[in-house]
Design goal:
- Its EC number is 4.1.2.14, 4.1.3.16.
- Pfam families: Aldolase.
- It is a single chain.
- By secondary structure, this protein is of the alpha/beta class.
- The strands form two sheets. It has a six-stranded parallel sheet. The chain has a three-stranded parallel sheet with strand order 6-7-8.
- Strand 3, helix 4 and strand 4 form a beta-alpha-beta unit.
- Helix 2 packs across helix 3, helix 2 packs parallel to helix 10 and helix 3 packs parallel to helix 4.
- The protein is globular.
Length: 203
């Protein structure tokens, strides 16, 4: 199974797209693409989310589009059917991890404590999402577990901002960080796509 860090290449920001319709989803992704980003995460939180994944892949075929907020078989199936390139989860369970492995897709499982990390490792994962990062110990937690899990790397998400983004990336066991601040809901509502591009360029 390909590692998420290999999928993302040199990109260290995993920008999160939340859109109420396909047109906005494509516009957000295009704005991010214009900033040089090639990998995005579309969270499956609305009835149009899966359609956004398909629409972005059709409009911007060079982009790698992941599906976030995968929590069960229904959301995993929706992500796969939409053509997601990889899967991101907010949490892990024995059952969910078994389904994720069986999917054959690259996966970034969400963990929030040491037990979650061990569980994900037992299923073969060595790259994980720390979520919600700010409420799960943040950079201090990742620094603390670095010695325990020397071959495990993380993509913290949840509470990541321009103020702490570089603090996370300074850690040896962090390969990227996810965030929503580069596509604020008000910018999307006002269709200020250029502000999204600018925010991504500043990372």
């Amino acid at each position: 199974m390909k590692k998420i860090s290999e999928v993302m290449g040199k990109q260290q920001l995993l920008p999160i797209i939340q859109a109420d319709n396909e047109a906005d989803g494509v516009a957000i992704a295009r704005a991010m693409s214009e900033a040089g980003l090639t990998t995005v995460e579309v969270v499956l939180r609305t009835e149009h989310s899966a359609k956004c994944i398909s629409a972005i892949k059709a409009a911007l075929p060079h982009m790698i589009v992941s599906a976030g907020t995968v929590i069960d078989k229904a959301s995993l199936d929706a992500a796969i059917n939409a053509g997601a390139d990889f899967i991101v989860t907010p949490a892990v369970t024995e059952r969910l991890l078994t389904m994720l492995v069986a999917s054959g897709l690259p996966v970034l499982p969400g963990v929030s404590n040491v037990s979650d990390i061990v569980l994900a490792r037992e299923h073969g994962f060595r790259e994980m999402k720390l979520f919600p990062a700010s409420l799960s110990g943040g950079a201090a937690f990742l620094k603390a577990v670095g010695g325990l899990f020397k071959d495990t790397r993380f993509c913290p998400t949840g509470g990541v901002s321009p103020d702490n983004f570089n603090d996370y990336l300074a850690l040896n066991n962090v390969f990227a960080a996810g965030g929503t601040w580069v596509a604020k809901p008000q910018w999307v509502a006002d269709k200020q796509w250029d502000l999204i591009t600018q925010a991504c360029l500043q990372v």
